[in-house]
Specification:
The chain is of the alpha/beta class. Helices cover 35% and strands 18% of the residues. It contains eleven helices and 15 strands. An eight-stranded mixed β-sheet has the order 5-4-3-2-1-13-14-15, with no helix packed on it. Helix 1 runs antiparallel to helix 3 and helix 5 packs across helix 7. The longest helix has 16 residues. The radius of gyration is 21 Å and the shape is globular.
Amino acid sequence: FQQISAILWFGCLCSAVFYHPVMVLWLEKVWEYIVAIQIPGFAWIGSMPLFFGVFVFSYWQNWELYRSKKALVMVILSFFLVRTQSYINPFAKITYLDVGQGDCTLIQLPFHTGNILIDTGGMLKEDLAKTVLVPYLNGKGISELDMVVITHDDFDHNGALESLKEVMPIDCIVTERQNNYTVGNFRMLEVSEDQTGDTDNDTSLTCWYQINNLTFLQCGDLGKQKEDDIIKQYNITCDVLKLSHHGSDSSSSSYYLSHLHPQIAIVSSGYQNTYHHPSTSVTDNLRRLGIPYLNTAEEGAIHIIVGRWIRFFYTERGMFGIIKPGDKR
């Protein structure tokens, strides 16, 4: 029985290490809540709910084990593996955070080779850095960011940056257009060469990147004309499209959507926002083209896990799905 218990314990630990959503999603939620209320002595542990899950599971399997010296060994091993799990995690994780009527995307590269934030969101009546970003990052064991990219100078995209800089080290902050944005071997391409526009939205930085053959695109608040120009200038496709301007009808033309034809589209908008984002014309076009979409206002944070052969998404509201890379032109 002890051997069976050990096998089950190790299986549970492996699931935790590789962020199996069914096994540990509720534990992560509990932990993020604990970090959010800032109980002293907990924040430094990082991915502690994974340890708790393993510990409780193994205790339930064979409580006699914890009356022996083996208990101490297993506890120490759990701490070690949980604290180092990001370094042996082969999966990338892209999270579209729920920051209300704003944008914030976290890219966690495999094997802890980089953590990148695209936009920070921003609220006038709430410090998102202290109430959302830092607790979430600490809950994932992230104590510093390799890069923060600010797509453009709108408060709902950069409002939390100054507060975030005060409490978390950031190696590089990008606010101006470059040919590419690089962290280690990971590179995001800038696919809009034009730095001019009638509005600040049209000067948004654009980020196209690929992880294990799955491609992503997000263009800040870029308008229809600038988006269409990208399609005309670059023969790009994407599997995951972050809709520009929160799904506004000022972006995401039928031409743009039909050319890219992503496997899934992401909308980052606030619950019952006064702008009525996403626009019904945009969502109607998505349905007509057979492009499924997820909205942070309805689903909370949206997580995409990318491995060599495994690609799936899950949301804070419990939705789950497989993402199959589309045909690359």
